[in-house]
Each structure stands twice: as C-alpha cells, then as structure tokens.
Amino acid sequence: MKEANQNSNTRIDQLVNKLKSLGLKRKDIYVDFISETKVYDHHIEGNEINEFFEGFSLRRNLIVKVKELSLIHKIIDLAAEQEIHDLVKVDYLVEDLEAINDKLFEEAMKIASKRKKDFNSQVL
What we know:
Blueprint lengths: L1 H20 L7 E17 L2 E17 L6 H11 L15 H27 L1
Antiparallel strand pairs: 1-2
C-alpha cells in the first residue's frame, strides 16, 4: 500500500510541476482521494486457476482550474506523460453570460426566420 501511494504521489507531483510551467498556480490544482482497492492476479496450472494478491490500486481526482480553454489539450498531454489517462469532466464557467444569451437569441431568430420562410413557401 505504501509503495502504491508513493508511486501515485510521484506521478502527481511531476504532473503538478509541469502544470506550473503552463502558468497554473498550485492553488488552482487540487488532489482528491477517491478509493484504495486491492488488485488480484492469477496464474493457470493445468485445470487450476490460482488467484493471488498483486497489490493496491489508488484512485484520485486531480482537479485543475483553468481560465483558458486552450490549455485543456496541453494538460491532457502532460497527464498522459505521467500515465494519467482518465479525463472525467470539464466544467466551463462563463463570466459574460449576457453576451452568450445575446448570441443564442440571434441564432434562434435566424432559425425561426428560415423556418418561417420555408413554411410560407410550402403554403403558397
């Protein structure tokens, strides 16, 4: 268990250092412990399968707060270098909600206008 924890910490520490090189601050990176499970393996001898304890597997979340969406691909690449492969979720936080609402309304009006035009051409 101790070895699994040390290996996990080493990989996470290396990733955190690389994330800092992207300009991210340590306060924007949080590591959350999820679970610790036993891992079993087996070997086959004739008609017998013998299962044995292999070690432990640790699961953790690494939560990274970024302001630039363009950093996501770089973060994924850096994580992959440390054999961290599961991207669970990306939350998009928008500061100017009114601008997005205006853009969505504009697009909705274009769609409504096109449908109105299509409907009128079919009726006539």
